[in-house]
Amino acid sequence: MTKDLNQTVVVLDFGGQYKELIARRVRECGVHSQILSGATPLETLRQIAPIGIILTGGPHSVYDASSPHTVKELFEMGIPILGICYGMQLMAYTLGGEVGPCKVSEYGTISATYDDKACALFDGLESETVTLMSHTDCVLRVPDGFIGAAHTADCPIAAMYNAERRLYAVQFHPEVERTREGTRLIHNFLYRICGAKGDYNIDDVIDRQIRAIREQVGDKGVVLGLSGGVDSSVCAAILERAIPGQLTCIFVDHGMMRKNEGDEIERAFKGKSLNFVRVDAEERFLSKLAGVTEPERKRKIIGEEFVRVFEEESDKYAGSFLAQGTIYPDVVESGLTTGAVIKSHHNVGGLPKDTKFIGLVEPLRYLFKDEVRALGRRLGLDEALVSRQPFPGPGLAVRCIGEVTKERLDILRDADYIYREEIARAGLKYDQYFAVLTDMRTVGVMGDGRTYNYVLGLRAVITSDFMTCEYAHIPYSVLDVVSSRIVNEVKGVSRVVYDVTGKPPATIEWE
Ligand code: XMP
Are 174 and 206 a contacting pair, CB within 8 Å? Predict the structure, then answer.
């Protein structure tokens, strides 16, 4: 996705938690976006030649010595700018306005009024509205040439602009859903102020990535580790489209997939114009896990064994490229775009030095998750694969509390299958739901006999970011059916419980 092919909006990051959301909203409006550090040199910005720049919020006050600042020249490049929250304060402060503490800090959804009908940001929007606010400082006096354009009960200048210089700013967060018509405000900025043409769409992304893959790879081979998750599946699909016959997908079956899942993955990719290799490593993994009950040890053992099996298999393809389903949030969180590391990701940023591969291919590197899904659908992948819920790398091992054995995994697989079947039958949709086999056994009675079997936990959560969640209020009627089917049909379970804990304080997985 090079700049000469698309109009681009640069999101300059000043530490705001919503930078990715801003970039996604811009793309949803049909304009390519890119996240860069707030400290990006002006020369770099000039080279990118964005049609607009958005300054994110951030947790700072412009008066903190350590807070990120910017230079006056940023606002003199002639590029339209939208400052959001801290970005608004930074614009005011840098251009000679006055910033200070509000009378009352505003947090949460707050009623606001767009006062200035002439402000292009508010074109077609209701003037009485609701916005998400999160600030203790605010703009007390706008810089020369600016007009205050919105207010709330406690924030007299909730937006400001200078139409001639195409500089706009809002104290609230238009990128979040809780701001009414927030996306329309961003759309106005893009189309009425920046002159966006709306030239970014998923078909173009596919065409461009295919060209880029062909150019990079030539006639060499490519090896991809396929997990059956959304990212690696879509990565396989686009590679297959770009370089039919040159791709090898290695699926390491660690034996801890859900019921039938390994076969489903095989069915989805076998017979296509790629070389599908399924490595049956169940026994290898289970023997390493024998006697291990501590969750982090399980994770570590599985992670290490996974790399070992993949390397052994991929040795056969030395001299190929290695493909990875890295997506844009992985790149952003690794600090490669902004310098701020949130999580380190395996191999993001380059191949290790002593590698047998000749390069790294990452066709999804510029895409957000929802774009990856859209791409998968456009490439004809099954909906079940594209909308698959997240599944931990260590698989059912972290849902099998206590020792992981084939027998216990089978009990869990069967129970989990019934649970998923009944949720689907009831037409319910949750972001993630699964069964957990505990290591606790309780007494039960079946027929005339006493049983002494495992307690099985059911979990279903509602979340958009998987960082926090609420437990789902599953109808009792569905729980009734699931519970009675599991206890009757799955040998080894005597009792079913439902997890009614959110995150925090619990996590989504039990281990
Ligand atoms: P927690 O349990 O931390 O999970 O609330 C948040 C999300 O991450 C998934 N998860 C994992 N994914 N490897 C993964 O690839 C892991 O070890 C792992 N542990 C948790 C979890 O399913 C949820 O979606």
Answer: no
Residue with tokens 């490229």: 321
Question: Which of 85, 102, 235, 400 does the annotation list as catalytic?
Answer: 85
Strands (E), 343-382: 359-361
Instruction: List the domain range (segments joined by +) for residue 71.
Output: 2-193
Mean pLDDT, range 478-501, rounded to an integer? 98
Number of domains in the chain: 3
Q: Would you say the CB of residue 432 lies under 6 angstroms from ligand 1?
A: yes
Looking at residue 3, its pLDDT comes to 43
Mean pLDDT across the chain, nearest whole number? 94
CA 192 to chain CA centroid, Å, is 29
**pLDDT tens sequence across 268-296:** 999 999 999 999 999 999 999 999 999 99
Six token digits for residue 265: 């993955």
pTM of the full predicted structure? 0.85
Are 169 and 20 found together in one domain?
yes
Of 171, 193, 215, which residue constitutes the final position of a domain? 193
Cα of 111 from ligand 1 centre, angstroms: 37
**Three-class SS of 314-329:** HHHHCCCEEECCCCHH
94 CA to centre of own chain: 33
Asked if residue 509 has its Cβ within 6 Å of ligand 1, the reply is yes
Please indicate whether residue 29 is annotated as part of the active site.
no
Residue 74 belongs to domain with CATH number:
3.40.50.880
Residue in 188, 201, 54 with CA at minimum distance from that of residue 117? 188
